[in-house]
Amino acid sequence: MNVKIASVVFESTNAEELMKFWAALLAAPSAFNPESGWGAVVADNVTISTKPVQLQELPGLEKGSRVHLDIEVENLESATDKAVALGATIKRGPFGEAETGQYTVFADIDGNAFCLYTDPAGAHGEIIEAIRSGVIS
């Protein structure tokens, strides 16, 4: 069986605005279908989709994201400025040191968590590459 992750989907009460936020933050191409309410942003090899949702209460669950995106940037300060200018809010941080890597936790315009981080030593990518190359399984 051939299985692949097609996209990361954010449910939103305003899918078009959320798609525009991610497209601007990632400087990536996007498209929105007003008939279906679905939008998509394609950045590198990852597709972020946005879809309309009717909010419902889920008893016992805390509000907020359970999954978040990690986005590697070259300069955390300028990336933070861009994210905030687009409407993101800083939840925590920044943490870490410039030499070893820093990160800040944000919420996008719809409250979804994401992190902007620097990784000058390449540590974050090491484990991913090890899995892809079969060193770790």
TrEMBL record:
InterPro entries: Glyas_Bleomycin-R_OHBP_Dase, Glyoxalase_6, VOC_core
Sequence ranges assigned to domain VOC in this UniProt record: 4-119
Organism annotation: Scrofimicrobium canadense
SUPFAM superfamilies: Glyoxalase/Bleomycin resistance protein/Dihydroxybiphenyl dioxygenase
Highest taxon listed in the record's lineage: Bacteria
Protein's UniProt name: VOC domain-containing protein
